[in-house]
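Instructor's aside before we start: the two examples that follow are unrelated to each other. I chose them only because their records fit on one page, so don't look for a connection. First example below.
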Amino acid sequence: MSDEGAGGLFGRRGGEDGNPSADETQRAFSVTEFTRRVKDTLAQSIRPCWVRGEISNLRAQASGHVYFVLKDAGAQVAAVLFRGDAARQSVALRDGLQVLVFGQVSVYEARGQYQIIVRAVVEDGVGRLQREFEALKRRLADEGLFDNARKTAIPPMPATIGFVTSPTGAAVQDFIRILKRRGWRGWLVVLPAKVQGEGAAEEMAAMLRAAESLGIFDLLVIGRGGGSLEDLWAFNEEALVRAVAACRVPVISAVGHEIDFTLCDFAADLRAETPSGAAELISSQFVHCVERMTRAGETLGKLLGERIERARDQLDSLRAHLRLLSPSARIEQGHLRLDDMAGRLASAFQHATLLKRQQLTAARSTFAARSPETRVQMASQQLLGLWKRLQAASPRSVLNRGFVIMRDEAGRPLARRAEVNAGQPVVAEFADGKVRMSATEPELGL
């Protein structure tokens, strides 16, 4: 690999002195990142393929996984056959056995070791069949037998299905079981034919042509369960492949397991990984429609229930309205109105009576306030008050408190000393009488 190519995949080297720059140091991969990048690059560059070699260092673990080395004269590579794939193999593995393995390259990151994850193993004696398979595949493909343009669309909901297979095989039982489990409704006709051995391809081709001539099938399925390449070889024979391609009824090829490919798979209108997968594919649209119908039925039932409930409410409303319009209801309404008006009349009468009573009480209060008797009583009280004030201010009241009123002979009150002369006759008025007196010489300074 050139420096440029290496730089494009893993990054360029540092400066001219060979030391990485600070930026390159920051971008350096960890070992885990580097190994994962190698793993992704190998997985993307090398697709699953067949590899021929000799088994060496075979180790079967208690977990069911099988580890071995696949080698030839020039190199070797680690290989692993996981438990599920190992259980499906019909080849008894042993050291020194020449085999063809089908698998994909991967990297065991913990050790940084690349290996082949094996999906299928066949003895190298089968290599001849594999070469014949590849040669016939190329020839038929060049004829356009496998072109998508000549394939027919699979009906989404076939009503009548014909299954060309062995009536005693497990494949047809699995096919029927899945259709029943998924609730598929339709007609399934098992078209019996040999699926293995001499004459099997011709028998299946004849059955396909007979089914096509009946004109009752919407879909044909051809297939069988898994097996070795020799077991499945009838589905690679040219006569059957051409019969599948020429059939005017849509054909699904359902042969073997997921990793098994036959030429019928390429010639058929659709390939199913297994017969069970074909049953699921055929019934999927039916199941989808059933689910849609179930949801539609539930929705319709809900809408119908809501519509019935609304109609019931409307009916109740109309009944109530009809009752209101009936003569008895109108009479009842008249009674209600009469009772209401009687109540309102009684209430108005009580209110008017109360109002008149309040007005009468106010008039009585006003009349009482304006009557002569009241005014006389008030005037009498005022007169009494004035009389008491007059009595309190009268000379008699003063005399009663111990004072004496001096008067001259004419009876005029003597209010000042200067008005009295020596020897002048005066009258002293007491509360209980009067006394005549004669004034003496007044004392000065008093």
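Example two begins here.
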Amino acid sequence: MSPAPSPGGPRRVLVVDDDELILEVAEMSLSMVGGWEVTTATGGQEALDRCARELPDAVVMDVMMPGMDGSTAAILMSQDPAISHIPVVLLTAKAQAAEDAQKSGLPVVGVLAKPFDPMTLPAQLSTLLGWTA
């Protein structure tokens, strides 16, 4: 189950991707359409650091990134008691990677496909996380 929303404010989501354009579009979508606070990171290690500092309500993370990939970062998050409660949704352009992630038992609540529709991304994410609109 997802944690309660951030006290006294909108949900906070960390978006992690090594593609600046994807970060910009996701950030605009989740903030403007979803009304959420969005921070970004460009890699797995930066995501772990930001999660420990900021404790977002959820993380949306690309699977394929240089350095530490999203799957490894999700596993490391699940092993850290300070951030293991933060739900992770993987974002991938590879259909096979999405299927593999769901079948492999990775500690994620779901997988979203790229390219995504910026107008429906917040609703898709809310559904995966069990958040009501």
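The CA atoms of residues 94 and 113 lie 8 Å apart.
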